[in-house]
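User: Structure tokens for this complex, please. No commentary.
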Amino acid sequence: MAARSPRGSLSGASDIASDFEDSLKDLQRNDRFAIENLTNIARESTEHAQAISRVLENHIKATAPTRKLPALYVLDSIVKNVGTPYTVYLGRGLYSTFMESYGSNNDPTTRRAMDNLLKTWKEPVPGSMDHRPVFPPDVVRPIESALIRWKTGMLQKQNQPQLQPQGGYRSTATPPQYNGQYAVPPVPVQQNAYNAFGSQQTPQQLAGHAVYHTPTPMQQHYAAPPTSVLHAPIDVQVVKADISSLISRLQTQFAAAPYDTQVQTKLSQILDLQRAVDAKPPFGDSLRQVRDIVAALAAGLPPLPAPTPQPHAPVQWQAPTPTPQWQPPASFPLPYQPQTAASYMQPPPAQSQPLPILTPGALSSLQALLANGQKPSTPQMRTAVPALSSASHTQLNNVQNNVAAAPTANTADLLAALAKSGMFPIMSAPNATPSVPFSASVAAPPASSTASLLQSLQSILPPASQNGTPTMIPAQLVASKPRIPFSAAALKQFRPELVRSLYDEQPNQCSNCGRRFLANDEGRAKKARHLDWHFRTNQRMADPNTGRGQHRSWFVDEMEWIRLTEFDPSTTTADAAIAATTAKKQKGPQDQYVRAPAGVTRNTCSICQEEMRSSYSEELQDWVFMNAAMYNGKIAHATCVEEIKKSSLQSASGAMAAALSGAYAGGRRQRSETPDSALGKRKAEGALAGAGARIKMG
Amino acid sequence: MALPGLSLPGLGLQPSATPVYGGAAPPPVEQIARREDLPPQSEWRFEAAFGQQYNIRLLSGQAELFGVELAPKQTYNLSGCKGAIFTWQGCQLEITGDAESEYSAKETEYAVEWLNLHGMLETARDEAQPDGGPRVLVVGPDHAGKSSLVRSVAAWAVKAGRTPTVVNLDPREGMLAPPGSLTAAAVASQLDVENGYGIPPISGPTVTPIQTPLIYSYPYASSSEKPAVYKALLTRMALSVTNKLEEDATAKQSGIIIDTPGSLNDPKSNYDILNHIVSEFNINLILSIGSEKLLNDLTRRFSMGKAPGESVPVLRISRPGGTVERDAVYMKQLRMSQLRQYFFGNAKEPLNPHSHSINFGELGIYRAKSSSDASNTSTGFGADDDDYTPNFGTTGSDGDFEKVTPSAAMTGSLIAIKFCPASSDGDAVRDSAVMGFLYVAEVDEARKKMRFLAPHPQRWGDRALVWGSWPEVVADLLT
Ligand SMILES: [Zn+2]
Ligand SMILES: [Zn+2]
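Assistant:
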């Protein structure tokens, strides 16, 4: 192997790949035999995985819409049955591959099939010893959030004509809040890791390491289910948060079942309710009513269906009965059925029994675990909910069933009363918003009564545990905060509590830089890290190596800046910092590095023979050669190595750029009245955004 | 040759192992330290010239500069700074060096207002709607204290654990970049007493906090010179900022604070650009400093008689008593200092720029036309109009950017490297973000070679370069 020239291996790859491509082009429909055959080619040619992956990606993008789904099934079959290295190569471009296919298909059945496919990629391969998901979360999650945002955006757009008043400056150009299909840039599998550490570990292992540290900002902020607010003092903010939580859960549901017009209706109605409350915060009895409704709804939410549900699959590819995957080939084409965990699980229990009395804590733990697909009888469940640890299997199953049910009786009445009470006059008031809060919206099927709305809500809302509203109040500094509205009058009076919040309430001060920390454990831990950071920094600044010519870095491009998660390096652990910076970054070859061996500050690129110099990496806190990779045991420019490998990265990043330009174009359409707008211009620029991966060495 | 009178903030105090380019400070004069006791809610106002040593140390109590708290017993070098050390609780300062003016003042009602504003923004963040936290536009004439206000509320927000996105739309004074830039940065690390928002990333370790900005180039001194270009860039920046906030829940909740040049206070254009900003950034709070007319006009336009969902509150914010006119000489020194910092760093983090000599043929340079030649492309550029040959490549002649061949007129100019390729069309060149800046050290027309001072040892590849009239030519950056 080592003796073979890279060119040689490329030509070998191109033969195999073109065979693969030919077979792929023959795939016109969901033909399990053909898909299995293609999978076998891929399995037997892992040394050409990169070329095959590229052929497959290109085919999925280029082929007719009706053939995209079968081709995606080929991808699915390969990653599930062969795995590494295909997961790595296909993971890189998965965002654009998937989003383009999704976007080019208007057929609801096909899209639903794609949705289901995506869900299975978040799970381990059923029955596999490997418990990692098919694709790492940071490959799948951007796709999911893009889909959710896109679908939400579609829904909101449907509502917009009603809500946006005419004329005025504000309506000329509103920046997109959910601006289009491809707003989330893809987060490809991190590449530098395995290049940096050599080839002992498989790419997927390393990618996996990086992946599991990925911060998930949305989830960090999710509130606990608002089940316990029933007897709390009424706070309009809490009610608002609960409404947001409902919306958020409905959005998730909507993402899962985008063609369910009922979900759309409910979501738009809840959005109306939210707007009403926002526009004129209710008080007194109205507030109590809203709160009760929201609380009752929230408490009555059924659990999510099992995370990889038996797909409500289009008829064309679903086998009539759940079967073990990979049946022996039949003499006629059989549809391919993606493997899902559901094949190994019980269907979700019926949701019809009355709600048992559970403490809120137990309930939310249960919901959380159910949302994670835990059976109540699993050890994890028993550990997590100690109260249930001695329960029998049957009891646990009953509990699980019961969690699903909701108290319905008086919520419907409350909601109806509320709608009649005229507590939302604002909805039809000055800004000409015509809609009555609970009238059916544009996309709605037959207008639904409030009672049926409630029932629908109960049947569609997943549990509160995972998808609640972002907690808008940071953990610290909550206690003494004054509430100050936007008003001129509020500016004048001196509020010592504001000074205290910036000084006394953060009594733990760094004597080097004056930075303050809270007096709790978190604050102390942060301060310890911070002092450690000062120490390390001072040490490094004193290092004679440091003086030898630092330089200004290039500024980042838009894509990188958008994806960058800002953090304070002085209080962040190195692991978290690296995860934050690298996980969201598209790694081009110039971002790869090799740690400089001790004492080695210069190296000659083994490919282009130009000199390379080491530089200091703040992230790694070590001297490294940037834009470097190991090539035949020597350090070379990563860009040179990439050139030789003729990587698929180029096309992947081009596709990503196209995706970005799609987002820009989408945003553009929404504000077409903006002067100087030119849709095509954006595209031209967007296509360049990915060019960062191709910087030539000077 | 050293540059007298042009030392940078923080420069020249600590002897550095690496010679700092242009860092020649006046020979250290033995200064007598003096002490100043400030009662609660008072401030120490000072104007320290560039090149003048001026140090402040907090001996006791607590104090802040533009919202950034001073660490006890640390010496801060405030050369080239005009500002006020404010104390809520009272403090004792030790002051060394000479300032053009310095005095203590108790008329600090503005500080109470500003802090209340911080409290308001915190409330808005706590109660943030799904579309995000407070998005604040700060407007007013020049020298009214807008930048000080923005920096203060940003510093307090960071202290409260937020990540506000700060946007600078004043091309005369760069933020984390040389002049001629428009900047957006999500600020997560505590601000720095001497360096404000910190410094943009460098290759080595730093003591000063690092901020990663997104930079656009607007190579004109005033928004009114090319309003169409300015607005296009605002649109582009708003798109990037909006996308970023969608990616980062903390930043989205923390909101946006936008600093603007006084030129936007322009009733003749019917406040066209302000309207544009309000809609592009979806502004939900406008702060007006220092102009009653502007306040009234904006209140009428955005606030009065509007439906609740449509109304944008406009608040009058007091200008700080200590604001001083920053005259043309000072502003030029400030720009020079920013330019030099970009290439050479500061005393704590000195940088080595790199020289690149490149053939004309390998360069794709666009000239950002000045307003005077917008209608007539054959008109030259400044005093050197005979020195360049317009080369209408891919750009239409009526565009704002035209491809030109290098000429001696470019010597001493700042050139922006855009992320877009050299072959891009005019709008792409206009909208593309900035990868870095080059200083034109030399143009050899005979040998058809150009020598640049670049921040980075690597070449920048096949990218569009933009040459504009702003910032002004600096003849002596290298000498
Ligand atoms: Zn510190
Ligand atoms: Zn090389």
